[in-house]
Specification:
6% helix; seven-stranded antiparallel β-sheet; five-stranded antiparallel β-sheet; single chain; mainly beta
Length: 209
């Protein structure tokens, strides 16, 4: 089981954002969990400034409140975005991020509770992801915990070689955080915001089975 209690989820490395999402209402009490959570995308103008630290974006949203994971299980996230007709999602396109992929969300798995730059300690669902602009209706991302569905910090797929396979297996066995990240272009977790209009991200279910 993965908790859906908003205070069990952390908005990380996200300048201008609160520490936790808010409860999505109406909420339904289910033992120690709630039916969902939400947050508003911050106003951001990545493309007109290089001062990233002063810009607002949502980057990582994760929880450490879950039962032990096992290979072969499936992580499932059900969500949608309420957005104004004129919304524009910003992710920091420019010379340092030339890839054409639109702002998007993808699932995330982390070995241990502390962030590490070791390549095989952080994993992203790949290619399974969702462009934000196309998430106006309910979206379900379902990603099996198998190495061919995930890539590491440097973009290497989990089944690329013996080292990545071992690294992915180890991350699943010792997982300390799961959730999702926002990014665009070449980067999966460097954040997203809106530079026009407004948008609210609503997660109604995040589970493993």
């Amino acid at each position: 089981m993965i908790s859906m209690k908003p205070t069990d989820w952390n908005i990380r490395f996200s300048p201008g954002m609160p520490k936790h999402p808010q409860a999505y209402g109406p909420v339904v009490q289910r033992s120690d969990t709630l039916s969902g959570w939400q947050f508003d995308f911050p106003f951001s103008l990545h493309s007109v400034s290089n001062k990233r630290a002063k810009l607002k974006s949502v980057n990582y949203v994760t929880t450490s409140k879950f039962d032990k994971l096992h290979l072969g299980q499936v992580l499932r996230a059900t969500f949608h975005i309420v957005m104004s007709p004129d919304v524009y999602f910003e992710y920091g396109a420019g010379p340092n991020n030339p890839c054409p992929r639109a702002a998007n969300y993808r699932l995330y798995l982390q070995k241990g509770k502390s962030l590490s730059d070791n390549a095989n300690t952080r994993w992203w669902s790949n290619p399974i992801s969702q462009d934000l602009i196309s998430a106006g209706e309910e979206v379900l991302l379902a990603v099996p915990l198998e190495p061919d569905n995930w890539s590491n910090i440097w973009g290497h797929m989990g089944d690329e070689d013996n080292e990545t396979i071992k690294g992915f297996f180890d991350a699943v066995a010792k997982a300390g955080a799961v959730g999702g990240t926002f990014g665009g272009g070449c980067f999966f977790g460097h954040g997203a915001g809106v530079s026009k209009g407004s948008a609210q991200f609503i997660m109604t279910e995040y589970r493993v089975d």
